[in-house]
Write a structure and sequence with these properties.
mainly alpha
Length: 143
């Protein structure tokens, strides 16, 4: 799932909880649940850079609109499990067969929980719909 999608889902946890610690943990938990939904994952670094930039921009926007640290903590919690995926992307020799020295640890990355897959464009459209639906909560909250 895209970083932007994970950020918005986690930020929603922050909007609901209004507690930064609970929001961060809720964001992390939401990452595992969201990864189980069939979705598209990009395979090229350039899309990852653009995606993370979009998530950071949305974070700045939400803070500038007056949403507090809980929303930001939830969003960061939602994205943070993918740090290991980024690390593995830049260090494939440690993670790929025939002799992987390391393995991914987060439950939806390690295989402990299922990781849904849906080809482009449907996996993209699904995430776009999720982000749009959740952003309406922020708009309603602001009015």
């Amino acid at each position: 799932m895209y970083a932007t999608t994970h950020f918005i889902i986690g930020a929603t946890a922050g909007l609901i909880t209004q507690d930064p610690v609970v929001a961060f943990l809720g964001g992390c938990a939401s990452h595992a649940l969201a990864d189980m939904v069939p979705h598209h994952d990009y395979q090229e670094t350039k899309w990852g850079v653009l995606d993370v930039a979009a998530a950071v921009a949305i974070g700045f926007l939400l803070v500038s609109l007056g949403y507090g640290v809980s929303v930001l903590a939830g969003g960061i919690g939602g994205m943070s499990p993918d740090i290991e995926v980024v690390w593995a992307h830049f260090h494939p020799e440690d993670y790929l067969p025939p002799n992987p020295r390391r393995r991914l640890l987060f439950p939806s990355h390690s295989g402990l929980l299922p990781h849904g897959k849906l080809d482009f464009p449907w996996g993209f459209i699904l995430q776009l719909g999720m982000v749009a639906a959740l952003l309406t909560l922020f708009v309603k909250e602001a009015s």
